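retry 2 of 3: previous attempt timed out while embedding adenosine-5'-triphosphate. Reduced batch size to 1 and resubmitted. Inputs unchanged:
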Amino acid sequence: MTAGDPTTLHHDAPPVLTARGVRVRLGGHEILHGVDLDAHPGEAVAIMGGNGSGKSTLVRALVGALPMAAGDVTIFDAPRTRASARRIGYVPQRASAGGGVSATAREVVTAGLLGVGSLRPPRDAKARALAALDDLGVADLADRDVSRLSGGQQQRVLIARALVRDPDLLILDEPMAGVDVPSQEALAAALTARRDAGKAIILVLHELGALAPLVHHAVVLEQGCVTHIGEPLAPSASTPYPATTMTTPTPMCPSRPRRPSPGRFASDRPDD
Ligand SMILES: Nc1ncnc2c1ncn2[C@@H]1O[C@H](COP(=O)(O)OP(=O)(O)OP(=O)(O)O)[C@@H](O)[C@H]1O
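retry 2 succeeded.
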Protein backbone atom coordinates (compact mmCIF):
# COMPACT_ATOMS: atom_id res chain seq x y z
CA MET A 1 0.00 0.00 0.00
CA THR A 2 1.36 3.36 -0.92
CA ALA A 3 1.10 6.02 1.73
CA GLY A 4 0.77 9.65 0.75
CA ASP A 5 3.86 11.37 -0.61
CA PRO A 6 5.75 12.72 2.43
CA THR A 7 7.33 15.46 0.30
CA THR A 8 4.03 17.33 0.45
CA LEU A 9 4.19 17.52 4.25
CA HIS A 10 4.96 20.78 6.00
CA HIS A 11 5.90 19.49 9.45
CA ASP A 12 7.95 22.60 10.16
CA ALA A 13 4.77 24.67 9.92
CA PRO A 14 2.44 24.72 12.94
CA PRO A 15 -0.19 21.97 12.86
CA VAL A 16 -3.50 23.02 11.39
CA LEU A 17 -5.29 21.01 14.06
CA THR A 18 -4.15 19.50 17.35
CA ALA A 19 -6.49 17.44 19.53
CA ARG A 20 -5.37 16.22 22.93
CA GLY A 21 -7.16 13.93 25.34
CA VAL A 22 -10.54 14.24 23.66
CA ARG A 23 -13.28 12.63 25.76
CA VAL A 24 -16.92 12.66 24.70
CA ARG A 25 -19.93 11.35 26.60
CA LEU A 26 -23.21 10.54 24.87
CA GLY A 27 -26.32 8.94 26.29
CA GLY A 28 -24.66 8.46 29.68
CA HIS A 29 -21.65 6.59 28.28
CA GLU A 30 -18.13 7.71 27.55
CA ILE A 31 -17.71 7.20 23.79
CA LEU A 32 -14.19 8.62 23.35
CA HIS A 33 -11.69 7.90 26.09
CA GLY A 34 -8.96 10.47 25.47
CA VAL A 35 -8.02 10.69 21.81
CA ASP A 36 -5.05 12.61 20.39
CA LEU A 37 -4.80 13.68 16.76
CA ASP A 38 -2.63 16.06 14.73
CA ALA A 39 -3.06 17.29 11.17
CA HIS A 40 -0.30 19.28 9.51
CA PRO A 41 -0.38 21.39 6.35
CA GLY A 42 -0.10 19.16 3.30
CA GLU A 43 -1.07 16.05 5.28
CA ALA A 44 -3.96 13.64 4.80
CA VAL A 45 -4.94 11.62 7.88
CA ALA A 46 -7.41 8.74 7.75
CA ILE A 47 -9.49 7.94 10.84
CA MET A 48 -10.37 4.27 10.55
CA GLY A 49 -12.00 1.60 12.69
CA GLY A 50 -15.02 -0.64 12.87
CA ASN A 51 -18.66 0.38 13.15
CA GLY A 52 -19.33 2.23 16.39
CA SER A 53 -15.63 2.74 17.23
CA GLY A 54 -16.15 6.51 17.57
CA LYS A 55 -14.93 7.94 14.26
CA SER A 56 -17.89 10.23 13.58
CA THR A 57 -18.06 11.23 17.23
CA LEU A 58 -14.41 12.28 17.04
CA VAL A 59 -14.79 14.46 13.96
CA ARG A 60 -17.97 16.00 15.34
CA ALA A 61 -16.05 16.92 18.48
CA LEU A 62 -13.18 18.31 16.39
CA VAL A 63 -15.49 20.70 14.53
CA GLY A 64 -17.37 21.69 17.67
CA ALA A 65 -20.62 19.94 16.73
CA LEU A 66 -20.42 17.94 19.97
CA PRO A 67 -19.19 19.19 23.33
CA MET A 68 -16.17 17.46 24.84
CA ALA A 69 -16.24 16.17 28.40
CA ALA A 70 -12.47 16.79 28.49
CA GLY A 71 -9.62 17.58 26.14
CA ASP A 72 -8.39 20.38 23.92
CA VAL A 73 -8.74 21.14 20.24
CA THR A 74 -6.58 23.87 18.79
CA ILE A 75 -6.69 25.27 15.27
CA PHE A 76 -3.45 26.92 14.17
CA ASP A 77 -2.09 26.75 17.70
CA ALA A 78 -5.03 28.64 19.22
CA PRO A 79 -8.28 27.52 20.81
CA ARG A 80 -11.02 27.00 18.25
CA THR A 81 -13.07 30.14 17.64
CA ARG A 82 -15.85 30.98 15.21
CA ALA A 83 -13.30 32.65 12.95
CA SER A 84 -10.92 29.69 12.97
CA ALA A 85 -13.81 27.27 12.52
CA ARG A 86 -14.45 29.01 9.18
CA ARG A 87 -11.09 27.70 8.02
CA ILE A 88 -12.52 24.19 8.26
CA GLY A 89 -14.62 22.56 5.55
CA TYR A 90 -16.67 19.75 7.09
CA VAL A 91 -18.98 17.27 5.42
CA PRO A 92 -20.80 15.00 7.90
CA GLN A 93 -21.72 11.41 7.23
CA ARG A 94 -24.90 10.77 5.24
CA ALA A 95 -25.88 14.44 5.10
CA SER A 96 -28.56 15.54 2.70
CA ALA A 97 -27.69 18.48 0.48
CA GLY A 98 -31.03 20.27 0.37
CA GLY A 99 -31.67 20.62 4.08
CA GLY A 100 -35.38 20.43 3.31
CA VAL A 101 -35.44 23.53 1.10
CA SER A 102 -35.56 23.70 -2.67
CA ALA A 103 -32.18 24.79 -4.05
CA THR A 104 -30.06 24.04 -7.08
CA ALA A 105 -26.69 22.34 -6.73
CA ARG A 106 -24.99 25.61 -7.67
CA GLU A 107 -26.91 27.52 -4.99
CA VAL A 108 -25.94 24.94 -2.39
CA VAL A 109 -22.27 25.24 -3.33
CA THR A 110 -22.45 29.05 -3.47
CA ALA A 111 -23.78 28.99 0.09
CA GLY A 112 -20.36 27.60 1.07
CA LEU A 113 -18.93 31.04 0.25
CA LEU A 114 -21.24 32.94 2.58
CA GLY A 115 -19.67 34.29 5.71
CA VAL A 116 -16.13 34.22 4.29
CA GLY A 117 -15.17 37.82 4.97
CA SER A 118 -18.60 39.13 3.97
CA LEU A 119 -22.27 38.35 4.37
CA ARG A 120 -22.66 38.42 0.59
CA PRO A 121 -21.15 35.88 -1.75
CA PRO A 122 -18.13 37.23 -3.65
CA ARG A 123 -18.61 38.48 -7.24
CA ASP A 124 -17.03 35.42 -8.74
CA ALA A 125 -19.20 33.10 -6.58
CA LYS A 126 -21.01 31.57 -9.54
CA ALA A 127 -17.78 30.74 -11.38
CA ARG A 128 -16.18 29.35 -8.22
CA ALA A 129 -19.22 27.22 -7.48
CA LEU A 130 -19.20 25.81 -11.00
CA ALA A 131 -15.46 25.12 -10.79
CA ALA A 132 -15.95 23.24 -7.49
CA LEU A 133 -18.79 21.20 -8.99
CA ASP A 134 -16.59 20.51 -12.02
CA ASP A 135 -13.77 19.31 -9.73
CA LEU A 136 -16.16 16.70 -8.38
CA GLY A 137 -17.42 15.78 -11.85
CA VAL A 138 -20.93 17.13 -11.27
CA ALA A 139 -20.92 20.44 -13.21
CA ASP A 140 -23.74 19.04 -15.36
CA LEU A 141 -25.96 18.95 -12.25
CA ALA A 142 -25.45 22.64 -11.41
CA ASP A 143 -29.02 23.70 -12.20
CA ARG A 144 -30.75 20.61 -10.83
CA ASP A 145 -32.76 20.68 -7.60
CA VAL A 146 -30.51 18.91 -5.08
CA SER A 147 -33.45 17.24 -3.35
CA ARG A 148 -33.99 15.31 -6.58
CA LEU A 149 -30.39 14.12 -6.87
CA SER A 150 -29.24 10.65 -5.85
CA GLY A 151 -27.44 10.10 -2.54
CA GLY A 152 -24.03 9.85 -4.23
CA GLN A 153 -24.71 12.99 -6.31
CA GLN A 154 -25.78 14.93 -3.20
CA GLN A 155 -22.64 13.76 -1.43
CA ARG A 156 -20.49 15.20 -4.21
CA VAL A 157 -22.40 18.50 -4.15
CA LEU A 158 -21.78 18.76 -0.40
CA ILE A 159 -18.09 18.07 -0.85
CA ALA A 160 -18.00 20.76 -3.56
CA ARG A 161 -19.61 23.16 -1.04
CA ALA A 162 -16.84 22.36 1.44
CA LEU A 163 -14.11 22.75 -1.20
CA VAL A 164 -15.36 26.01 -2.73
CA ARG A 165 -14.07 28.19 0.09
CA ASP A 166 -10.64 26.57 -0.16
CA PRO A 167 -10.45 25.70 3.56
CA ASP A 168 -7.12 25.09 5.29
CA LEU A 169 -8.55 21.92 6.80
CA LEU A 170 -11.05 19.58 5.16
CA ILE A 171 -12.84 17.04 7.34
CA LEU A 172 -14.86 14.51 5.37
CA ASP A 173 -16.82 11.76 7.12
CA GLU A 174 -17.11 8.74 4.82
CA PRO A 175 -16.78 10.79 1.61
CA MET A 176 -16.81 7.68 -0.58
CA ALA A 177 -20.10 6.33 0.79
CA GLY A 178 -22.49 5.80 -2.10
CA VAL A 179 -20.06 7.31 -4.63
CA ASP A 180 -19.36 5.28 -7.78
CA VAL A 181 -15.83 4.36 -8.85
CA PRO A 182 -15.29 7.03 -11.56
CA SER A 183 -16.54 9.70 -9.12
CA GLN A 184 -14.26 8.33 -6.38
CA GLU A 185 -11.34 8.90 -8.74
CA ALA A 186 -12.50 12.49 -9.41
CA LEU A 187 -12.75 13.08 -5.66
CA ALA A 188 -9.31 11.55 -5.06
CA ALA A 189 -7.82 13.88 -7.69
CA ALA A 190 -9.55 16.95 -6.22
CA LEU A 191 -8.33 16.10 -2.70
CA THR A 192 -4.80 15.35 -3.88
CA ALA A 193 -4.62 18.79 -5.51
CA ARG A 194 -5.71 20.39 -2.21
CA ARG A 195 -3.23 18.36 -0.20
CA ASP A 196 -0.40 19.23 -2.57
CA ALA A 197 -1.36 22.91 -2.21
CA GLY A 198 -0.62 22.56 1.53
CA LYS A 199 -4.11 21.95 2.89
CA ALA A 200 -4.68 19.43 5.68
CA ILE A 201 -7.28 16.71 5.18
CA ILE A 202 -8.91 14.44 7.76
CA LEU A 203 -10.98 11.60 6.34
CA VAL A 204 -13.18 9.09 8.12
CA LEU A 205 -12.87 5.94 6.05
CA HIS A 206 -13.79 2.29 6.28
CA GLU A 207 -11.33 1.42 3.57
CA LEU A 208 -8.75 3.48 1.75
CA GLY A 209 -9.79 2.44 -1.78
CA ALA A 210 -9.10 5.16 -4.33
CA LEU A 211 -7.82 7.44 -1.54
CA ALA A 212 -4.89 5.13 -0.61
CA PRO A 213 -2.26 7.20 -2.49
CA LEU A 214 -3.52 10.37 -0.78
CA VAL A 215 -3.30 9.25 2.85
CA HIS A 216 -0.09 9.79 4.84
CA HIS A 217 -1.10 8.00 8.00
CA ALA A 218 -4.03 6.36 9.67
CA VAL A 219 -5.39 6.70 13.19
CA VAL A 220 -7.34 3.56 14.08
CA LEU A 221 -10.02 3.70 16.76
CA GLU A 222 -11.39 0.76 18.67
CA GLN A 223 -14.14 1.35 21.25
CA GLY A 224 -13.22 5.02 21.54
CA CYS A 225 -9.48 4.43 21.96
CA VAL A 226 -6.62 4.90 19.52
CA THR A 227 -5.03 1.52 18.83
CA HIS A 228 -2.81 2.42 15.90
CA ILE A 229 -1.17 5.54 14.55
CA GLY A 230 1.07 5.17 11.53
CA GLU A 231 1.21 3.69 8.09
CA PRO A 232 -2.26 2.69 6.94
CA LEU A 233 -2.53 -1.08 7.21
CA ALA A 234 -4.94 -3.22 5.25
CA PRO A 235 -7.58 -4.81 7.46
CA SER A 236 -8.08 -8.54 7.07
CA ALA A 237 -11.04 -10.76 7.83
CA SER A 238 -9.51 -12.05 11.08
CA THR A 239 -8.23 -8.67 12.30
CA PRO A 240 -10.59 -6.09 10.83
CA TYR A 241 -8.40 -3.31 12.14
CA PRO A 242 -4.89 -3.60 13.55
CA ALA A 243 -5.00 -3.38 17.34
CA THR A 244 -1.40 -3.82 18.43
CA THR A 245 0.58 -1.62 16.11
CA MET A 246 0.93 1.58 18.10
CA THR A 247 3.92 3.40 16.65
CA THR A 248 3.69 6.56 18.72
CA PRO A 249 4.45 7.02 22.41
CA THR A 250 1.77 5.74 24.72
CA PRO A 251 -1.46 3.88 24.25
CA MET A 252 -4.25 6.25 25.17
CA CYS A 253 -6.43 3.58 26.76
CA PRO A 254 -4.10 1.31 28.72
CA SER A 255 -6.98 -0.44 30.45
CA ARG A 256 -9.56 -0.09 27.81
CA PRO A 257 -12.97 0.39 29.40
CA ARG A 258 -15.65 -1.77 27.85
CA ARG A 259 -18.90 0.07 27.58
CA PRO A 260 -22.15 -1.69 28.20
CA SER A 261 -24.19 -1.75 25.03
CA PRO A 262 -25.83 1.68 24.78
CA GLY A 263 -28.82 0.12 23.06
CA ARG A 264 -31.15 2.43 21.23
CA PHE A 265 -30.90 6.10 22.06
CA ALA A 266 -33.86 8.37 21.98
CA SER A 267 -32.23 11.47 20.61
CA ASP A 268 -29.01 12.61 19.00
CA ARG A 269 -28.48 15.15 21.73
CA PRO A 270 -25.35 14.82 23.81
CA ASP A 271 -25.82 14.62 27.58
CA ASP A 272 -23.82 17.73 28.46
N1 LIG B 1 -26.44 10.39 20.49
C1 LIG B 1 -25.89 9.27 20.96
N2 LIG B 1 -26.24 8.80 22.18
C2 LIG B 1 -25.67 7.68 22.67
N3 LIG B 1 -24.74 6.96 22.03
C3 LIG B 1 -24.35 7.39 20.81
C4 LIG B 1 -24.92 8.56 20.21
N4 LIG B 1 -24.33 8.74 19.02
C5 LIG B 1 -23.46 7.72 18.86
N5 LIG B 1 -23.48 6.92 19.94
C6 LIG B 1 -22.64 5.71 20.16
O1 LIG B 1 -21.29 6.11 20.07
C7 LIG B 1 -20.53 5.05 19.51
C8 LIG B 1 -19.67 5.62 18.40
O2 LIG B 1 -20.53 6.06 17.35
P1 LIG B 1 -19.92 6.71 16.05
O3 LIG B 1 -21.06 7.11 15.17
O4 LIG B 1 -18.93 7.75 16.41
O5 LIG B 1 -19.14 5.46 15.42
P2 LIG B 1 -18.43 5.31 14.02
O6 LIG B 1 -17.08 4.77 14.28
O7 LIG B 1 -18.50 6.58 13.24
O8 LIG B 1 -19.34 4.18 13.36
P3 LIG B 1 -19.74 3.86 11.83
O9 LIG B 1 -18.52 3.31 11.17
O10 LIG B 1 -20.81 2.83 11.98
O11 LIG B 1 -20.23 5.13 11.19
C9 LIG B 1 -21.50 3.97 19.08
O12 LIG B 1 -21.50 2.94 20.05
C10 LIG B 1 -22.84 4.68 19.07
O13 LIG B 1 -23.87 3.80 19.39
